[in-house]
Predict the 3D structure of the following.
Amino acid sequence: MKSYCIKTDNEKIIEYLLNKISKIDFPDIYYCRKSFKIYENVIMHYKESNVAKFQNIVANIIVDAVIDFYQDSIIKRIINVNYFYFDEFEKNIIFENCQEFFMQDKEEIIETIFMEIRKYLADNKNIVLEGVINFRMNEYVTILDNIVDMSVNKFIIEKEYKEFINLLKIYVSSTESKVDMLHLIYQKRRINTVR
């Protein structure tokens, strides 16, 4: 028999985990909820021989919980620590950029989380969610850190572009035109390179 105990002090996460587990279509999985000291626990038991499949199921449930309950707060923490000098409005734009970058690489990021959780499950029966996320998922947090950096770069580029356009508008509106009409003709030209 293989067993895992997922620990958290967050009631919403407990309900989320129990709901996910109740929808599993895999025989011989038994689960319950227990309270011990400061944590609420979801305990899962599996009595058959396909332990690898059971571990994958548990890992997928944890991956979903990480993305749904922890990812946004990790991203916001990285923004607040590394880019504290931006105001709240700017931080919100950066956070929205992070969401876009996450969606672009979602499958790859999910695979990274899955592999880190799967590796942890191979050696451990107790999973304190906050502890695993904060201390065992270094590659995942590094990816999120890179996403935040790219999002900040995107924000700065867009901000500088808007400032340039505004300066250009001010310049154009402040100078008088010296020509009554100007015709622009676009031609696609081939550039020859010398070797």
Remarks:
- Strands lie at 2-8, 29-36, 39-46, 126-128.
- The helical segments are 11-22, 51-82, 88-104, 106-123, 129-135, 138-174.
